[in-house]
Amino acid sequence: MNSLALLDDGNSLALLEDGNSLALLEDGNSLALLEDGNSLALLEDGNSLALLEDGNSLALLEDGNSLALLEDGNSLALLEDGNSLALLEDGNSLALLDDGNSLTLLDDGNSLALLDDENSLALLEDGKVLALLEDGKVLALLEDGKVLALLEEEKVLALLEEGNSLALLEEGNSLALLEDGNSLALLEDRKQLT
User: Is residue 98 part of a domain?
Assistant: First the structure.
């Protein structure tokens, strides 16, 4: 009824249609198009790309840019060799990879992570919990409620706070500060006082 087929050796194409499904092949461009309901696929050798779509999911591949895009509901992924990046998104979570900058971004609700080789930093946040790492300064910041920690190799300091208690360490001055309630202690190599 709705099905037909067309063959032409000059153009080397074939078209098939049955209901909502159809297929197109052409040797000149080496492409194939398939559609069944909401799903379709496109292949082309010139650009080496493939497009797949089923409902909300689709995929795109292209050798020129070496990219692939996948989307299913709210989730998608993007890959590109030129920039070597991948983007994934599912609900509120996403991830980004880029070899040029060597960064990764992850986001799920309130949690996220960022990595960058140039700065070598990673940021994690979930609720009130976060962490930051950077090789240039080599620091790490962690916060969970009132608990946090800071590390830096240049000054080699660490700050910890939980409730009213905190501690500070720094190798340059070799001091440590501890406070819990009304009690505190200070240590310094040069003066060594409490």
Answer: no
Q: What angle do CA 93, 98, 103 make, to 5 degrees?
A: 65
**Alpha-carbon distances, residue 31 vs 37, 61, 149, 182 (angstroms):** 20, 13, 57, 76
13 assigned to some structural domain: no
Answer whether 187's CB lies under 8 Å from 194's CB.
Answer: yes
Whether 8 maps to a domain, the answer reads: no
25 within some domain? no
Evaluate if residue 78 carries a pLDDT over 50. yes
Place of tokens 């910890």: 160
The one-character DSSP state at 134 is: B
Q: Is the pTM of this model over 0.70?
A: no
Contact of 94 with 83, CB cutoff 8 Å: no
User: Which domain range does residue 193 map to?
Assistant: 126-194
Query: How does 130-149 read in b/e, with b if 16+ C-beta sit within 10 Å?
Result: bbbbbeebebbbbbeeeebb
8 A C-beta contact, residue 22 and residue 34: yes
**Number of domains the chain is built from:** 1
CB 147 within 8 A of CB 134: no
Per-residue pLDDT, 51: 57
Round to whole Å and give the CA distance between 176 and 178. Answer: 7
